[in-house]
Each structure stands twice: as structure tokens, then as C-alpha cells.
Amino acid sequence: AADPDGDLLLMRRLPPKLSDLRAPGEALMVVGGGANGPLYRSLASGDSARLTRQGWDVRIIADTGATLGELQRDRLILYGGPADNSVAGDLRGALPMVVGGDSAVISGETVRDSTLGLLQAGANPWFDEGILIWVQAFGTAARPELRPFDDSWVLVRGGEKVHSGTWVVNDEAMEAPVK
Fold this sequence. Notes:
Blueprint: E1 26-31, H1 37-53, E2 57-62, H2 68-71, E3 75-79, H3 86-89, E4 103-106, E5 109-112, E6 117-123, E7 131-137, E8 153-157, E9 160-165
Parallel strand pairs: 1-2, 1-3, 3-7
Antiparallel strand pairs: 4-5, 6-7, 6-8, 8-9
């Protein structure tokens, strides 16, 4: 970006967004088992079919069979919270928002609705420059659909956005003193 006088080019690190899914490519979906396993397998199958129709090459695996090599992907999509997905259990703190069973804290308020789901994008901790998408349902009535929203996180009912936001990126490596 140039300064107002057009003299300076600045490099900026952009926040990961769900819109990074607009360009077709390869993706690995890691689906949690447990009590909500059938729900997450159904969600992943629906999202996989939709992405495949858009030109994607998508593979779905169970969380219990995921190897480090498989997690080192440019596009990794997890289904299920820490209680359902062992890979998601390893991510505590990697993404700012966590669903606690049937609720999440959004903008300081606890949101409870069994028909809602949370989609969030972040850096893939197993692959530099990769993106991690995490799909979590608030209850068995939720049917969150993975869509390329122009946000870092989206609270959804089906494929409709209910509330959303974009992460703030603090990139201290890009700061330089001006003399």
C-alpha cells in the first residue's frame, strides 16, 4: 500500500478469511468421531460435494487416522470441537473462538442456539502459509455450511451469516522505524 503521497510501499500481512476458499484447490477434511461423529461426517460430505462441483479435490479422513504429513496441507478443514475431534483438541488457543458445547462467547456475550454453527479461519499450525478452517456445530440441529464468506469467523445458521468478524493482525515483523 502506498502512503498518501505515493512514496512508500508497505507490506501487510492480511488476516486469514473464509474467502480464501474461493479459488479451487486441494483440501483435506478431518472429521471428528464421538457422539457427534455422524453429524460432522454428514456436514463434511455436504461441503465436500459442494466444493467438488466447484472444481476442488477434497479428501475426507477420520481424526483418529490423521498423520502429521496429512495435517501439513495448504488447506486443512476440521469438523468438530475438541471433545469430538482429537486434532481440534490439539489446537487449544490456536484460534481465538471456541465453542463450549452448545454455546460460544461472541463480543462478550454468550450465544446459545442449537441451530447455529461457527466457521473460523486461521493459520495452519502444521504448515506455514497454510490455512486452517474449523467447523463447529452448537448442537445436533445445527447444519453449518462451509461458504467463502469475506470474514475470519462467521456464526451461521445453515449457509446464512448471522454474525461475523475479521481477526486483527499484529505483524510486528513488518514495522520499521522512519528516520
